[in-house]
Automatic annotation (TrEMBL), chain B:
<dbReference type="InterPro" id="IPR012340">
    <property type="entry name" value="NA-bd_OB-fold"/>
</dbReference>
<feature type="domain" description="MEIOB-like N-terminal">
    <location>
        <begin position="3"/>
        <end position="124"/>
    </location>
</feature>
<comment type="similarity">
    <text>Belongs to the MEIOB family.</text>
</comment>
<protein>
    <submittedName>
        <fullName>Meiosis specific with OB-fold</fullName>
    </submittedName>
</protein>
<dbReference type="GO" id="GO:0008310">
    <property type="term" value="F:single-stranded DNA 3'-5' DNA exonuclease activity"/>
</dbReference>
<keyword id="KW-0238">DNA-binding</keyword>
<dbReference type="InterPro" id="IPR056880">
    <property type="entry name" value="OB_MEIOB_N"/>
</dbReference>
<dbReference type="InterPro" id="IPR052469">
    <property type="entry name" value="MEIOB"/>
</dbReference>
<keyword id="KW-0469">Meiosis</keyword>
<dbReference type="Pfam" id="PF24903">
    <property type="entry name" value="OB_MEIOB_N"/>
</dbReference>
<dbReference type="GO" id="GO:0000712">
    <property type="term" value="P:resolution of meiotic recombination intermediates"/>
</dbReference>
<dbReference type="GO" id="GO:0003697">
    <property type="term" value="F:single-stranded DNA binding"/>
</dbReference>
């Protein structure tokens, strides 16, 4: 009886949550695969607006890196938003809403000087990982 | 002489030798030591075909209670095989062969109850041991002798697999001992069972963390656990993505039976675990932090890692007593000092069939990561393997 050669087994794509360190533009780019694997983003960027109060207790503000500007929102469910200083670099971790182009932040705080100096490598590593992931997607 | 019932306190790997009468045929053998009282234990040697000996050797381990039916009794010959066996108080040794004898796991729970404690009793006079300093001072004089050592475990290495020049597979584990006379002394084990035994021991904490230097991403930890079904230690720079500090205190601080480590409620008088060796005794329980945390990086999430006891106290910077006095807001604030922050995490990864991921992770140390160190690790990842 004819037996077709076994096709090499594709390793199952890691489907657990990831946290990607990235820049604003990178986040917008990688978010297009959000329906395939879950991830949160960590960004380091400069506060470029006042913090304003929105509906349902939302705190809205803009973050900027280079020419890219991003709308952010933080809901004070568990903790109050710390005092943010316009013009300084902050660290935001959150879930990017692609449809509204908003980062829904779950953690916001001032970035440490050493974090600002050293974040670039983590961005490169996240980019490299995502290029690999996307490659696997395109092969499937 | 019909039957011996005892607990296995030692066991060698299976070896083979060419038959004296027919060199074409290999005879297979392994040895074990069985104990049935504080004062008496005896060496047993099993001989037979490859299938019989391998099957028998796989059927029990150190710490199991077995009955041996119809073993042959023979006088010890200190010049021959017994030279390489543990010293026993008996003048005799037992022989197990396929045709005459049978070894079975003991199904009698009562017998196991009184036999199992014998596993932890020293086989020699409690004063008959060498310090590491004694061993060093004696040097060559001790070569070839079988001695007892009393020392603490500093570090457990990785198991190295190898194939000998004549094609036999073997393994090797090196551990480091220390005592008040010598700060580091290597002990090498070549047999499977002692290696498993040594892997189950936890080395002294400080020595342990210093010795863990291999850095992994989450997916590398998972892959290594899949490829090598043996416990290993590692370091990961990952975000804590679950830390339930502000749910009810009973989910953060738990009480476990001191013997079997099963969760118990404190108001119980005895352990509720039917299989607990101490279930008939008054409950001796220990209470401590007992959390399951998730770690996440750019490659994925390691779920349900145990963060317990003193390691948790060190990580959180408070004792359980201090924690219980915190207000809800303070607990939430404590949680957010770590949640979604990048941490430097020392873990022990243990393969475990019961969990969904196939592994169980124990946190040995966890603190907020230094961004400079994270950068170094990331730079290494970019360079590739």
């Amino acid at each position: 009886k004819y037996q077709p050669e076994a096709s090499p087994v594709k390793p199952a794509m890691e489907n657990s949550l990831r946290i990607l360190t990235t820049v604003i533009n990178g986040m917008r780019h990688w978010s297009q695969f959000k329906d395939k694997i879950p991830y949160l983003f960590e960004i380091f960027a400069t506060l470029d607006s006042a913090v304003t109060l929105g509906r349902y207790g939302a705190k809205n503000f803009l973050m900027r890196d280079g020419k890219d500007v991003l709308q952010c929102v933080f809901y004070e469910n568990e903790q109050v938003l710390p005092r943010l200083i316009r013009g300084q670099v902050h660290r935001c971790v959150g879930n990017y809403d692609r449809a509204r182009d908003v980062l829904i932040c779950v953690s916001v705080r001032a970035a440490l000087p050493s974090e600002q100096r050293n974040a670039l490598e983590a961005v490169k590593v996240s980019d490299a990982e995502m290029r690999g992931v996307v490659k696997v997607f395109s092969e499937v | 002489f019909q039957k011996v019932l005892g607990v296995i306190i030692g066991k060698t790997d299976v070896r083979s030798f060419p038959d004296r009468k027919n060199v074409e045929i290999n005879r297979f053998t392994f040895g074990f030591t069985i104990r049935d009282s504080p004062d008496f234990f005896i060496n047993v040697t099993a001989w037979g075909t490859e299938a019989y000996i391998n099957g028998l050797a796989d059927s029990f381990s150190i710490g199991d209670c077995v009955t041996i039916e119809s073993p042959l009794v023979s006088t010890k010959d200190p010049e021959k095989g017994d030279r390489f066996c543990p010293t026993t108080p008996s003048l005799y040794r037992l022989l197990v062969t396929e045709t005459h004898s049978q070894v079975c796991l003991c199904a009698d729970g009562d017998a196991s109850d009184w036999l199992l404690p014998l596993l932890h009793l020293p086989v020699k006079d409690s004063r008959d041991f060498y310090s590491l300093g004694d061993v060093v001072a004696n040097g060559q004089k001790l070569e070839g002798s079988v001695i007892n050592i009393l020392a603490a475990l500093k570090q457990v290495g990785d198991v190295k697999q190898f194939v000998t020049s004549d094609g036999r597979r073997g393994q090797r584990l090196e551990v480091k001992l220390f005592d008040d006379s010598v700060s580091s002394f290597p002990l090498i084990s070549w047999d499977r069972e002692p290696i498993q035994l040594l892997q189950g021991l936890l080395p002294r904490e400080t020595g342990r963390l210093e010795s863990i230097s291999d850095v992994y991403t989450v997916s590398q930890l998972k892959e290594k656990a899949k490829e090598h079904p043996q416990p290993f230690f590692g370091l990961t720079y990952s975000f804590i993505s679950r830390l339930d500090l502000d749910s009810s205190v009973s989910k953060v601080i738990k009480t476990r039976c001191g013997r079997c480590r099963l969760l118990v409620t404190e108001d119980l008088q005895t352990c509720s675990n039917q299989l607990c060796p101490a279930r008939d005794q008054p409950l001796s329980a220990s209470t401590g932090f007992d959390l399951l945390v998730d770690f996440t990086d750019h490659t994925g999430t390691l779920q349900a890692c145990s963060l317990r006891g003193p390691v948790a106290e060190q990580t959180l910077g408070c004792t359980t007593e201090e924690f219980t006095r915190l207000t809800d807001d303070q607990r939430t604030a404590l949680k957010w000092r770590f949640l979604l922050e990048r941490c430097k995490i020392h873990v022990k990864i243990v393969p475990c069939a019961r969990t969904k991921s196939g592994i169980r992770a124990l946190v040995l140390g966890c603190l907020l990561a230094d961004p400079g160190e994270v950068k170094q690790h990331m730079a290494q990842l970019l360079q590739g393997p």
